[in-house]
Amino acid sequence: MGLNSCYKTEEDIWEDSSAVRTEKTLNDYEQAMCAEENGWVLQYFANESEQAYPLLMKFSKNTAVNMAANNSVSSSSGYTEKASTFDLIADMGPVLTFNTYNELLHCFSDPQQDGMGHMGDYEFQIMGRNEDGSFNLRGKKHSIDMKMIKFPMGATYTVNGETKTVEKWEDYYTAYSAIKNAIFPSKSKALFLTAAGESYRVSGMGSGVLNIVPADADEDAFPTTLSYVISLDNGVHFSSPFTGDNNKFSIQNFKLNEAGILECTDVDQNANISSGTVATYFLVDGNNWRVDRNSLEGEYVALFEQMQSDCRTANYGTLQYIQFSWSSVENKLAFAFKTSKFDGEYYYDVTIDSDNVITLAFNQETTEASSSSKAKNAMVFYRQFESFKNFVNLLSATLTLEGNSPLSITTMSINDGNGNAMSVDLN
């Protein structure tokens, strides 16, 4: 009996020691959370098929928490603040729980008509803290990792060329939107991720959810889907690590570097996200490059004006635009036009000469043989109007391209070296 009593006493000692350590950890976490005068940003992911929903939080010693949000789900697309309560409890480790209902957070875990809803969490295991004071959290039910970072008071951002400073909570969402749009413009349809010698095509940036497929994948390839969140220091954080098709790497955090592209900041990882070369990006399937008629120079000016006049005279409608895009059907570059009555497109063979130089050659045979009604219309215009014929043939040249950004190109200049130039905008 004495021996049993001795063992029991030793167990009690270790249990008490563990409980004391846990209590101290909870107290330390609470003190740190409540001491942050400007509050925190919870980089919240409800799931990995929706955009991130950053939530602002200010904790008080009396267990009160004030939250703010600006999103379409919990705050009706407007800035809103709501108060509730929180607690730090021990449950297989320290847990941050929001134990009274706050619509700005709890709506993501509420069931919806589909029986599932957004499948978000409102209780979070605290996995630890980082050197910058941020907390690593994990959704208790759905296990999505996320960070709670200090509110970036004083961060700068640019709106319409004017530099501004985050001076209050509401400014955060204005800054977030401005920086997100600068990194991932809404017009940008595709970027390229390279890592460990592998290349992937990334789309969906504007929606807040990335769809990642191998760069040479077919259109029906099944994508890896990841949400992402922006930090105001020009950082991008994936909702979970991307490991590629062969698990040769594990990448999750990126930051805009001096070269203007997103560079991976994870330890021992070499990866980046960019538009790739200007020449390659010009030919990406899905990119429509609309010609800015006011940018035309050289012979392009008179030819375009004559094209407009010819359309009106022949009662073919008003010439609305001309543009370039890749034809996946013909596997060639298409030069297209649209009038108020007709659409047409011509097909070109393309040679990539260097990172920013391509050579175009009009392929009349392919255009005439195409079953596309647009190609048939185009050849009618080609034969009837010298203006269309001459413009199409003038494009058969070696062209130098220059993009407006190494990360997300939305505008390019095109120059044939003979005084003929134009600008095109991603449409």
UniProtKB/TrEMBL annotation:
InterPro entries attached to this UniProt entry: DUF4302
Pfam families named in the record: DUF4302
Source organism superkingdom: Bacteria
Protein known as: DUF4302 domain-containing protein
Originating organism: Barnesiella viscericola DSM 18177
